[in-house]
Prior knowledge:
Helices cover 47% and strands 16% of the residues. The protein has 211 residues and is α/β, with parallel strands linked by helices. It has a single domain, classed as 3-Layer(aba) Sandwich (Rossmann fold). Strands 2-3-1-4-8 form a 5-stranded parallel sheet, with helices on both faces. The protein has a 3-stranded antiparallel sheet with strand order 6-5-7. The longest helix has 15 residues, at 161-175. The model has no long low-confidence stretch (mean pLDDT 95). Bound molecules: BIS(adenosine)-5'-pentaphosphate and magnesium ion.
Amino acid sequence: xxxxxxxxxxxxxxxxxxxxxxxxxxxxxxxxxxxxxxxxxxxxxxxxxxxxxxxxxxxxxxxxxxxxxxxxxxxxxxxxxxxxxxxxxxxxxxxxxxxxxxxxxxxxxxxxxxxxxxxxxxxxxxxxxxxxxxxxxxxxxxxxxxxxxxxxxxxxxxxxxxxxxxxxxxxxxxxxxxxxxxxxxxxxxxxxxxxxxxxxxxxxxxxxxxx
Length: 211
Ligand code: AP5
Ligand code: MG
């Protein structure tokens, strides 16, 4: 399966991607996680991206398109993949189409802005592998420690309330138009994000089983 996950920041793309990845045995490609890893390792790309990511702005299209091109050429993507956080603009979606990659579906997880702001304040992420937790809704087995790799859980710099509001604006302006883009290709599926993580997962898996 070749799947795109759409949705506002904090809608639960990363959380659902982890579950779908395990169930369908396909890798998740999160441009956000790739950029944060580059930032941590101090690579040239990471340094270039830092000011954008910290301000909650999008990193320039050519940078993320380059990342995705390279990543999709790796052998583990041959049997399918989940794109979490890419494409995020129309030019990025067009670039993906121009790579000759046919997507099965773009699944949008819909959550109201007011709910997102509440959720983000409790998010914690693993500084090593990027897995996402929540202080209330998705607690790790051991406080402050990642279940998957035992990395330390930290607060993402761009989860400050002010930056979250900017990320939401950027989403509505630049990413939401992708819903029409994929609707026009007959590939859009919409799932309403639920209060309970498990309930969202049930809706997501049901939608995917029907494609
Ligand atoms: P990125 O890392 O992709 O961030 P994002 O899209 O803003 O999305 P998030 O990771 O914040 O949210 P999510 O939907 O994955 O939610 P999660 O599952 O963690 O991008 C960061 C930055 O990188 C961008 O701002 C940009 O600068 C740059 N970038 C990345 N890709 C780019 C691109 N293609 N082009 C240009 N720039 C790019 O869930 C959130 C929290 O809620 C968690 O704590 C979770 O446990 C909790 N939660 C999830 N579901 C539920 C539920 N149902 N009920 C209660 N809590 C829940
Ligand atoms: Mg994410």
